[in-house]
Here is the input.
Amino acid sequence: MFHRHWTVVSAAALLIAAGAVLAADAPTPKPADKDATYHGVFKFASLKQGNGQMTVSASRVQGGNAVDMLITAKDAGGIDLESLKFARGGELLEITCTNTAKPTITSLGRYDVKWGEDEPGIFVFSAKSTTKVGAAEYTSITVTKFLEPFTILVPNKKGADGKLAPDAALVKAIDALKAGDLAEVAAETVDGRLTLKSIDFFEPYRKAEFLRVVKGKPDKDELTGIEVKTGEGEGAVSRYYLDPKSEDFADLTKAIGAFRLGDNVLIRTITTNKIDWLLGIRTTAVSAQTQSGPDRLLPANWPRRGLGRGGRMR
Here is the structure.
């Protein structure tokens, strides 16, 4: 059977990463930075109108207090007013605003979440490159979480010839990814820099219609599974099984028991040894982690950046 740590996110069972995320006080921008902009994802809170302008109140998706941001008449051309008009509390918006004490929005629209991006440790892979640290050169990767970029160094290891080279196993895993892929990333802080420990492709969620819980024998043992309908119209009926030796088996069993015929769900699956396994199941594209705070979307040792106290960059 296929064994690994599986993520289960549902109304009944939501796995939230523990540990506080590091945060720093917001520095005051230098005069030369007064026109700099910040581009990120925010959770919508409220909209006020008056005196010829609109004020959007929203907080960064990774957590923090709400920031009031202005929309003036001259900047309204870059605003998706329909998205804003019908926005509900907690909805995710992609916003570009000035990096000032009173931010002004220059562009705004709905943010399209990659299904799984809102889970701790899951990032969107951008690119592999090189980074110089003093006289040393490292292979590095850039990943994002809700548009926040993070550069992570690949550690160098001594080869048989005694020369330092990037960790071959990590480079192989990185080369299997392409821009836009979801990746499960583990990193540690070494000498103040994020250094890669492991990286692997993260199978994204996809839409399905829940049909029923089933029992079956895909191999020699009887297993619990689910039947779902995928695709448009009639769709194809597929069956996915739960691995009883998985550490998440109990949570996954509880999760599938909460669904009823016809429920719209999101599922993660994988096929190994000709058996289709269920990795995760959830109800919505964005988990409850992005709907309430404080959020724990980043590992504890990862820096937090973006608009901080007073609406300024940190």
User: Anything to note?
Assistant: The CA atoms of residues 3 and 246 lie 6 Å apart. The domain at 20-113+293-314 is CATH 2.40.50.140 (OB fold (Dihydrolipoamide Acetyltransferase, E2P)).
